[in-house]
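Hi everyone, sorry if this is the wrong subforum. Our group has a chain we'd like a structural model of before ordering constructs, and none of us has done structure prediction before. Sequence below.
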Amino acid sequence: MTNLQDGLQRIATQISVSDLERSTRFYCEGLGFAEGPSSGVFTAAPDSEIAKMLGLPGGCTFQNRHLLRPDGGLEMVQLHQPEPHRERMPRLTNVGAKGLLFNCRDAAALAGRLVELGGTLIYGGKDGATGTYPSYFVADPDGIQIQLVSVPPEALKTALDH
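Answer:
Right subforum, don't worry. Here is the predicted structure as tokens:
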């Protein structure tokens, strides 16, 4: 029997941003990503394959940038034309991706740093699962939620194994 996951490799999580430079600074300086390749500004003609693939058959202009970390990549896309929708604030009540989750030594300090870089503090306190570990939610400059927790590695391994 063939394993359908043979050769499957996760490349990156894609997010849409309103300002590529601001978001690059936020994710690199705040969360330790390194800047990778960028497409520059690209225009997809109406009815081109890329415009169809993006669900914008009338054409579009965009640019992207890859950010890299040892634990995974992030591809940011800034749409120039057509004008992107600006409303964004993922909530648990909405279906779809909610945000990014990071474990770190000092969630409070990192949340503070992300706020200095243009993020918005949503919640600061203890995790909801056990009420034991620091947990902070910060929205990036475009409203994408980033959860920061400070869970000791042995407790995190136990939680992930269940």
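For your construct planning: The first helix runs from residue 20 to 31. Strands lie at 12-16, 34-38, 42-44, 60-69, 72-81, 99-103, 120-126, 134-139, 145-149.
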